[in-house]
Amino acid sequence: MFTPKYPPRDTAPTAIVPSSATDATPxxxxxxxxxxxxxxxxxxxLTPGSALALAAGGGAVVLVVGAVLVxxxxxxxxxxxxxxxxxxxxxLLVNDMHKGR
Length: 101
Fold this sequence. Notes:
It is a single chain. This protein is mainly alpha-helical. It contains 1 helix and no strands. The protein has one helix spanning about 50-100.
């Protein structure tokens, strides 16, 4: 299945050896070109309207993904600040308990 397929050779290669200096060297015949196989898959043709819709859709996807990532970053930042505030409050409460107030 994955082995290359070569076109059959019509003539055997001949050695070009001139018999004297005045003999002209024979020109080899051009190789036959195998026909290009035609694909049965349909081709995708983009009209200007469909290209514009594709670009707009891609832009919308980029904006939505960007908004989601920024939202996640803000959620992590807010959570980190909240944890820091709670840690400060707990430390103050523990220090007050140890001082006996």
